[in-house]
């Protein structure tokens, strides 16, 4: 069964608690938290204080995606804030293996995210250390972008690598995922779907979350 992780980046920041409750009612499996620093990506989102605050109002697992430069500086802070999964960009740190080991040392799951132009080859020597692989299907930094069609081949290739190695690594996709294309994306072998604007931008957030869940079962 494919899981759903709505992206808080598209939520109403004046009522985060209310929007989180709506996706809970709709059956969301996790909450995706995009942390941006304005350096690694050309946008600034939110950080540790916001994550700490919303940790108090939901039991959903926190799927934290660090789109920040040198994420190794802040791993413990995000763990302390309530992260259950910490995913770093392969392109954001020189010592990727060391960073993954630090994440895992705190007892949380470790993931690596790849930008659209980053090949799967970079995972070759670390894939057995990964709990999650996040394939970006847009160039990171802003919500509401369109899914890049050529990424479907990359998703299928990642699925094949995971299966051939007999791994249980979660395959996640984020970027441009909507009701209109989620089924074809899931069919590529995805375990975890991220969607932001198509969920939080809906008139009825809870109902839209349920629609996604029904399509990806």
From TrEMBL:
Q: Known EC number(s)?
A: 5.1.3.1
Q: In which pathway does it act?
A: Carbohydrate degradation
Q: How is the cofactor bound?
A: Binds 1 divalent metal cation per subunit.
Alphabetical GO CC annotations of the entry are: cytoplasm
Under Gene3D superfamilies, the record lists: Aldolase class I
The question of whether Zinc is a record keyword is answered with yes
Question: Out of the domains of life, which is the source?
Answer: Bacteria
**What UniProt keywords are attached to this protein's entry?**
Carbohydrate metabolism, Cobalt, Isomerase, Manganese, Metal-binding, Zinc
The record's active-site residues are 34, 174
| The reaction(s) this protein catalyses | D-ribulose 5-phosphate = D-xylulose 5-phosphate
If you read the UniProt record, what top EC class would you report for this enzyme, in one word? Answer: isomerase
Q: Where does the chain bind a divalent metal cation?
A: 32, 34, 65, 174
User: Which processes are annotated in GO (biological process)?
Assistant: pentose catabolic process; pentose-phosphate shunt
What GO molecular function annotations does the UniProt record carry, in alphabetical order? D-ribulose-phosphate 3-epimerase activity; metal ion binding
Chain sites annotated for binding substrate: 7, 65, 141-144, 174-176, 196-197
Q: Which residues form a coiled coil?
A: none
**Classification via NCBIfam families:** PRK05581.1-4, rpe
Chain's role: Catalyzes the reversible epimerization of D-ribulose 5-phosphate to D-xylulose 5-phosphate.
Instruction: Please report which protein family the annotation says this sequence is part of.
Output: Belongs to the ribulose-phosphate 3-epimerase family.
Q: What is this protein called?
A: Ribulose-phosphate 3-epimerase
Provenance organism: Wansuia hejianensis
Gene label: rpe
